[in-house]
């Protein structure tokens, strides 16, 4: 058996809303390492962390990869740190890169830390003391906030995972409209979905592989398999030169941010949960197009939201009735509202109670409190005040899942086409 000593590398917080992307910076490092005869062990990893982290630029992603620990390690470390120095967006106040080198075993404590980075908040000091406690080498640039994510990206286990192929632009094209042949994206999706997914938002006519920011990414294709990813890349035509591309193994679309909880009362702000609840009221839409309703269980109740960007999902939500039982997935944001990512209908309240129909065919009206019903047409009276159950047709189906559209979905949210994974 060949035992390879491994150097784990974690990199985070190198980009800003005006440019750069930590995955591109990492791919530049990987190519420089290669030029110097240093090959990665396995694919690099793109790890999405707590979606509510305060200082994130966009999707709270950090990158990690492994290289052999050998006589070239010092050179590798120099290349990595020099590239961060050269490419990170230091002018932005909110860009505080952090790099971690680690050459030991991945311990339980490290795994726990990485889940904490998905489920809760970690301070720079906490991350630094933890890195010291495990003997990791810490490199902080400016405030060095990136060490929080870098450490987590190194240690997070990936039981369920997906791949993302990220294609990058030539520097001279940054900030200009991307030149992607959309027809070829539709063709690619037709051929490779559901092995690849999140390519297109058909409801919104939105090409989801194309970022809308001025970053170096030309497009990103997400997939369950490397083969379909490579096939997809061959099919997508771009009408501008491509700088390079890199395939990442990721925790995107695995629902790793979702914690199962037994009770509504145990859910906390900035947590993401799977919870069962009963619909309390008919969903209401407010100015701005956001839709809200409450769900409850025996422990308490919470307001659920389907926000305007979830577009047609709100139409689905509007079909809910009090008494429907749902399994809901989502996160509790700043307003303390549970933002729904998807839900499964466990039970539908498809009965409503109405006044009885008279023998003459006319619906009866109340004859007064506890005085039964009377028919205004033929004058017939009945003593019972019990309304009669009437089955109502429902647009929703029991057991079926309903999800937000691609354009409004979090990186970590598992789409329905992956629910069997
Ligand atoms: P992009 O997706 O474009 O790469 P980003 O959204 O990943 O950008 P970063 O620039 O990486 O944003 O900034 C996120 C910052 O939040 C990093 O410094 C990271 O270390 C930190 N961070 C990540 N997870 C947590 C957490 N759980 N608690 C506190 N800080 C965190």
Unreliable runs, pLDDT <50, ≥5 residues? none
Q: Under the CATH scheme, which class of the largest domain?
A: Alpha Beta
Assigned CATH architecture of the largest domain: 2-Layer Sandwich
Bound molecule types: adenosine-5'-triphosphate
Task: Tally the structural domains.
Answer: 3
Please compute the radius of gyration using only Cα atoms.
27 Å
Structural class: alpha+beta
Q: Into which percent range does the helicity of residues fall? A: 10-25%
Shape: elongated
Q: What is the CATH topology of the largest domain?
A: Alpha-Beta Plaits
CA-CA gap between termini? 32 Å
Determine the strand fraction and express it as a percent band.
25-35%
Question: Which strands sit side by side, in order, in the main sheet?
Answer: 5-4-1-3-2-11-6-10-7
How many beta strands in the DSSP annotation? Answer: 24
Q: Give average pLDDT, whole number.
A: 96
Task: Compute the number of helices.
Answer: 8
């Amino acid at each position: 058996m060949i035992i390879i000593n491994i150097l784990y590398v974690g990199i985070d917080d190198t980009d800003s809303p005006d440019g750069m992307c930590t995955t591109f910076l990492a791919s530049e490092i990987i190519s420089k390492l290669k030029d110097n005869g240093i090959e990665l062990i396995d694919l690099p990893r793109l790890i999405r962390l707590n979606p509510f982290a305060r200082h994130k630029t966009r999707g709270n992603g950090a990158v990690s990869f492994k290289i052999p620990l050998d006589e070239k390690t010092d050179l590798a470390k120099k290349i990595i740190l020099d590239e961060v120095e050269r490419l990170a967006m230091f002018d932005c106040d909110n860009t505080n890169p952090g790099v971690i080198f680690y050459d030991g075993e991945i311990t339980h404590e490290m795994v726990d830390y990485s889940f904490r980075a998905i489920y809760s908040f970690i301070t720079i000091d906490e991350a630094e003391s933890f890195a010291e406690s495990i003997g990791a080498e810490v490199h902080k640039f400016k405030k060095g906030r990136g060490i929080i994510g870098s450490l987590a990206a190194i240690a997070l286990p990936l039981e369920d995972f997906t791949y993302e192929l990220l294609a990058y632009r030539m520097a001279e094209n940054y900030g200009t409209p991307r030149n992607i042949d959309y027809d070829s994206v539709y063709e690619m999706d037709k051929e490779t979905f559901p092995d690849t997914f999140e390519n297109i938002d058909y409801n919104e006519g939105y090409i989801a592989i194309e970022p809308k920011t001025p970053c170096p990414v030309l497009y990103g294709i997400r997939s369950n398999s490397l083969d379909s990813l490579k096939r997809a890349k061959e099919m997508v035509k771009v009408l501008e030169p491509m700088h390079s591309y890199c395939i990442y193994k990721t925790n995107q679309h695995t629902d790793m941010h979702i914690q199962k909880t037994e009770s509504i009362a145990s859910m906390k702000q900035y947590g993401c949960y799977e919870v069962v609840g009963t619909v309390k009221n008919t969903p209401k839409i407010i100015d701005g197009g956001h839709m809200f309703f409450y769900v409850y269980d025996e422990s308490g109740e919470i307001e659920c939201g389907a926000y305007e960007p979830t577009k047609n999902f709100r139409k689905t939500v509007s079909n809910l009735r009090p008494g429907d039982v749902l399994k809901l997935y989502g996160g509790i944001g700043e307003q303390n509202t549970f933002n729904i990512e998807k839900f499964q209908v466990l039970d539908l309240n498809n009965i409503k109670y109405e006044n009885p129909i008279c023998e003459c065919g006319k619906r009866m009206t109340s004859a007064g409190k506890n005085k039964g019903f009377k028919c205004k047409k033929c004058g017939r009276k009945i003593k019972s005040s019990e309304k009669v159950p009437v089955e109502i047709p429902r647009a929703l189906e029991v057991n079926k899942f309903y999800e937000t559209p691609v354009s409004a979905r979090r990186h970590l949210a598992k789409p329905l086409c992956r629910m069997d994974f």
